[in-house]
Amino acid sequence: MSATNAHIANARLNYNKGQLLENTINANPYQQFDAWLHQAITEQVQEPYAMHLGTVNDEGYPSVRVVLLREIIMNEGLVFFTNYASNKGKAIDHNTKVSVNFFWEPMERQVRAQGLVEKLSPQKSDAYFNSRPHESKIGAIVSKQSQIIASRELLDENYNKALVEYANATPARPQHWGGYLIKLNQIEFWQGRSSRMHDRINYTLNKNNEWNIIRLQP
Ligand SMILES: Cc1cc2nc3c(=O)[nH]c(=O)nc-3n(C[C@H](O)[C@H](O)[C@H](O)COP(=O)(O)O)c2cc1C
After folding, report:
1. Reduced to 3 states, what is the DSSP secondary structure of residue 131?
2. What is the pLDDT of residue 138?
3. Is the CB of 101 inside a 6 Å radius of any atom of ligand 1?
4. Domain ranges, ordered by start, for the chain
5. Under 8 Å CB-to-CB from 83, ≥6 apart: which residues?
6. Does any ligand 1 atom lie closer than 6 A to the CB of residue 65?
7. What is the mean pLDDT, run by run of 10 residues, along the chain of 218 residues?
8. Which residue has the least CA distance to atom 22 on ligand 1?
9. At CA 109, angle to CA 216 and CA 128, rounded to 5?
10. What are 72-115's pLDDT values in tens digits?
11. Fewest Cβ atoms closer than 10 Å to its Cβ: which of 38, 82, 138, 141?
12. Is 109 tagged catalytic?
């Protein structure tokens, strides 16, 4: 017996904070995304850069986790950083098709996109790594992300050892850590509307590298 089922089944919000119409959107989806993200920041959405990243592994299973969007490169793609040897890194080695999703709840907005992912240049990854706080650099060096570890104590021990090792040194970016660029080929903007009659505007990149814009039913 679930204590929350009754609540879940009966929860019904009506969305009425905005609308998304063809005559107000930007013809360039990167500009449109930038504008929406900027509004999410000014409206103080918590973690507006939290991006749900979906990958597909070599068994065909999709897997979703949150990573932080770190840069929008106009007309090129979205950037995030991670461990290249992690589960998501291995999935990307196998299949470069990924999807992402943002949900900005206070604005009743969702953005979902798909694209092909590639590694950022080592120079760009170095530049970002070097901008991180010392402790985060150590964390990236020490954590074999997605691998099993025997205990929390061992993890802390590894971290503390590295802190001592790098006490008087600036850590360089480890080879196993860096950035990815998601080159978008489709992106959909969703604005909640009343009575479930939401707005969905979808941009798809065509063969001539132009964005086609269509409206989808909610
Ligand atoms: C708010 C938030 C931000 C996160 N940001 C990142 C990130 O930028 N990079 C990253 O590798 N993991 C990030 N994580 C952790 C991932 O969700 C995930 O646990 C980790 O990357 C391992 O995923 P994997 O085993 O599928 O590779 C974040 C988690 C949360 C909740």
Report:
1. helix
2. 97
3. no
4. 13-132+175-215
5. 89, 140, 143, 144, 145, 146, 176, 177
6. yes
7. 84 90 97 98 95 98 98 98 98 98 97 98 98 97 98 98 96 97 98 96 98 98
8. 146
9. 115
10. 999 999 999 999 999 999 999 999 999 999 999 999 999 999 99
11. 38
12. no
Pocket lining: 30 vs ligand 1, CB cutoff 6 Å: no
Q: What separation in Å is there between the alpha carbon of 65 and the centre of ligand 1?
A: 6
Q: Taking a C-beta distance cutoff of 8 angstroms, is the pair 166, 84 a contact?
A: no
Give bridge partners of residue 112 from the DSSP assignment: 101, 188
Whose tokens are 């021990």? That residue is 157
DSSP string, 53-112: EEEE-TTS-EEEEEEE--EEETTTEEEEEEETTSHHHHHHHH--EEEEEEEEGGGTEEEE
Cβ within 8 Å of residue 85, ≥6 positions away: 144, 145, 146, 176
**Against a cut of 0.85, is the pTM above it?**
yes
To 10 degrees, what angle do helices 152-165 and 134-142 make? 120
Task: With H, G, I as helix, E, B as strand and everything else as coil, classify residue 162.
Answer: helix
